[in-house]
Amino acid sequence: MAENKNIIKSVLLFLAGSFIGVFTGFAQLVSHFPMELEGDKIVDSQTGKSFLVNSNLAPEQVDGAEGKALRLDGYSTYVAANIDVAKLSTKSLTFSLWCAMETYPMMNNDEAVNTSTYLAGNMDEGNKSGFAFLLSSQGDYSFDFYVSGWKVTCKANEKLEKYVWNHLMAVVDVNKKEVSIYRNSELVGSASIRLDGEITVGGESFIIGKSFSDIKSGPFLLNTINGLIDDIRIYNTALSVSESGYKTPEHEADLSIPESRFENDILRPVFHGMPGGNWTNEPHGLVFQDGKYHLFFQKNANGPYWGRLHWGHITSENLYDWKEDKIALSPSADYDWKGCWSGCVFNDAVLTGGEPHLFYTAVDNAKATIAEAYPVDGQLTDWMKVNHNPIIPGKPVGLSDDFRDPYIFSANGEFYMIVGTSSDGIGAATLHRYDKATKNWSNDGSLFFKGRNASISGTFWEMPVIVPMNDGKWLFMATPLGSRQGVEVLYWVGTIGNDGTFTPLPAYQNEPREMELSGMGKDGYGLLSPSLYQIEVGKYAAIGIVPDKLSSEANYTLGWAHTFSLPRELTLDENNQLSQKPYGGLSKLRTKTTHSATDFDLNGTRELTPVVGRCLEAQASFKVNSISKVGFRFFKKDDKAVEVYYNPLLNKVVVDARTIDRLKNDEGSFDGLYESILPAKVAVGSEFNLHVYVDHSIMDIFINEKWAFSVRLFPTDPVATGVEVFSDGGNTTFSSLNAWILDPKNKGDVGIMDVDTVDIELKVIGSVLKYGNLPVDAVLSFYDFSGRMLARNRVTDSNGTIQLPFSGSCIVHVIGSGVNYSEKITVNN
Fold first, then answer.
1. Whether the Cβ atoms of residue 738 and residue 619 lie closer than 8 Å to each other
2. Same domain flag for 683 and 795
3. How many CB atoms sit inside 10 A of residue 403's CB?
4. How far is residue 179's CA from residue 188's CA, in Å, rounded to a whole number?
């Protein structure tokens, strides 16, 4: 069907080109790229030649302005094609394409620049030939070409609008000595050709989605396009606007990442919040508006790496089934053109007129300031920056140049802002008071609170947060850099004085507490930079970033980096210490596929079938004895598993992933073994509650509804799906044991794999897999050793062959009636 549609589209375009020829006398459509995929290639309908789409993951096709369009990922996707330059005219040229941008190209990862890459073209600046549409890192666009070896640039008088279809057409007429650019049939730029000569048409090499050179940061291309490109046409004459064929797009520009991009990814979480792909960092501003939770966060839509930050936006009705919205804030002004960094969302009738406002760190190439934006619509999708930005023009005198992450709160009938900083080499937060009469913020160098020493409190505080709890107490949290434990979340409990400053309670005067269970959150592992939403007085939902700590090469292979934690409920206990338990609404994730038991003894192991897989919840309550290690094994296959257990002899909670096949993200720090001595001894005979959520590459673990931590593990064996509970060293009495397969869409039961009951035959000859004795409903899936699917085949007979479209060693996984089998094979293609 797709081939027929392409043929029809090509015929119609050929006829359109022929009719234009009648009107103009000699017009010819020289090249036309409909941008509709044929496998992993696109085709020039005029020549019939096909060209490979270069992309880290499989090339993607979405609804286009005309038919289908190519989705470019922003860090790897482009097409190296050819055009028939012999048919180009040296006197006139028309070049048109459709495009829709999610962001502008990166170009430089270290500083803000205004340099350009190609949307498409064959321009060769070394040979001073060819032509191209260019788009800059700041949204400026132009059509550049060469006349008799001299470069001519025709700039548009506007920025290229994002999230909409733009039909760009450049028309060159050497005889009239003019060039014009049209966007959606409107003239947006023109230039004169100041010399007599001919168009230097250039070579046949034609590139789509980037310029010919490579600008890289590690494995990532920085000069690639992030968005959609559709229907590229090159004519050998100067067309008029009426002849251009412009019409209203068939579809709206959909910049969401296709679900197909990660549908076979066994490592990507599904019920944890995260953007559709590429890079994310700390969340800020968990708010509830018009029936939905909104979470804003640091986002780089161009690739899974640090640089030129935006504010991303995801929404959910339940805090586990998330949908990404369009980007909320982008660098666009002289004060934030390097990036819109972290901050908060605040809503107050007086300060913000009863609607949420974004307060953020605006960064240029020299300094950080504080800026503000307000919503244009009730869905919090579109935002405008206030005219009087920046609202704080820079760091207070005498404090660190590193000045960022504003947080707004109200106390004593006044409004205050705190910002992360460093004072005398110790982490601190500034204090800025709001003047209701002048509507300005102070910036006199006052401190809200400062740590006692750098070893304990760190050298700089990121993402400070202050919220009211019960009985006049306040919870203050920050993510320090440079402490003895590295990067981790610390908290203090105290009071707010009449001047807006914070004083910790006596128990916190000398040392703060760790949010993550001690030892589990050091060195940037575990939950960081939480964003809090008040559920009721004294109770908050908290979501933070949980970095994956993988290499750049691994992030490139995956196409994404980092995720957010599950929501945790935070309260203070009778000792004014933080208690953490799972957000209550997570129970709706549970399907009908369960394992449940009460009041039983266990000495050994017990499988939790039918609960298996990578998306599940397990909870056990048992009586502690003096010798038995008790817990769960996940991702189990043979003698390999991730163990999560309590050891009463050492009063330790342990996560041991040393035996499994995995992407290693913790070498030199944890090396697969995560251990923590509990802050309080658990008495023999008392009840112990171990509660674990597993979501592919993240585990959120809760103990006694008191302590919690999140850990990132990346199991790569696609058939390591077993789950069991164990008591090692003696008999343990369980009061309850429950496990569920989880589904964020709540569609009911998830299919369960059968155990092996038959022998199958697999043999590879070159690139052909010969199989035998398979059930007729069998599915064969092929994975590389990072867990990414290479191919999948469904068979309809017991014996046959499959031509494999890849080379190298991999794992073949067979699932069917009575079969759950995997084997390593090597393909020579």
1. yes
2. no
3. 22
4. 11
The answer to whether 783 touches 663, Cβ cutoff 8 Å, is no
Q: Is 355 a member of any domain?
A: no
Q: Look-up: residue for tokens 């006829």?
A: 15
Cα–Cα distances in Å, from 674 out to 660, 724, 776? 14, 20, 44
Are 794 and 779 in contact, with CB atoms under 8 Å apart?
yes
d(C-alpha 594, C-alpha 612), whole Å? 10
Angle at alpha carbon of residue 541, lines to 535 and 545, rounded to 5°:
155
CATH number (domain holding residue 676): 2.60.120.560
Could you report the per-residue pLDDT of 286-313, keeping only the tens digit for each? 999 988 999 999 999 998 877 789 999 9
Same domain? 8 vs 152: yes
**Where residue 449 sits, what CATH number does that domain have?**
2.115.10.20
Q: Which of 56, 442, 72 is nearest to 227 (CA)?
A: 72
pTM above 0.70, yes or no: yes
Q: What's the Cα-to-Cα distance from 589 to each of 234, 258, 347, 742, rounded to whole Å?
A: 52, 23, 30, 5
Distance of CA 113 to the CA centre of its chain: 24
Are 489 and 623 part of one and the same domain?
Answer: no
Radius of gyration from C-alpha coordinates of the chain? 30
Distance CA 541, CA 316 (A): 14
> Helix and strand tally (H, E) in the chain?
3, 59
State how far Cα 528 lies from the chain centre: 16
735 shares its domain with 818 = no
Q: What is the pLDDT of residues 671-709, one digit of tens each?
A: 999 999 999 999 999 999 999 999 999 999 999 999 999
Look up residue 87 and give its two tokens: 């048919």
The answer to whether the bond into 610 is cis (omega within 30° of 0) is yes
**How close are the terminal C-alpha atoms of the chain, in Å?**
29
Q: Are 471 and 481 in contact (CB under 8 A)?
A: no
Structural domain includes residue 717: yes
Q: What kind and span of H or E run contains 7?
A: helix 2-24
Q: What is the CATH number of the domain that holds 160?
A: 2.60.120.200
419 in Cβ contact with 430 (< 8 Å): yes
Question: Looking at residue 483, what DSSP letter applies?
Answer: B
Instruction: Identify the CA nearest to 167 among candidates 146, 144, 183, 149.
Output: 183
Task: Please indicate, yes or no, whether residues 56 and 122 belong to a single structural domain of this protein.
Answer: yes
Q: Where are the alpha helices (DSSP H) in 250-375?
A: none
CA distance 53 to 744: 33
Kindly state the tokens that stand for 471: 């009985």
Query: Do the strands 560-561 and 278-289 form a parallel or antiparallel pair, or are they unpaired?
Result: parallel
Nearest Cα to 516, choosing from 475, 557, 565, 461? Answer: 565
Q: Which amino acid is at 343?
A: G
Number of domains the chain is built from = 4
In a domain, 523, yes or no: no
Q: What tokens were used for 194?
A: 């100041």
Please tell me the distance from the alpha carbon of residue 142 to that of residue 132, in angstroms, as a whole number.
8
Mean pLDDT, residues 554-572: 97
Domain that holds residue 482: 396-515
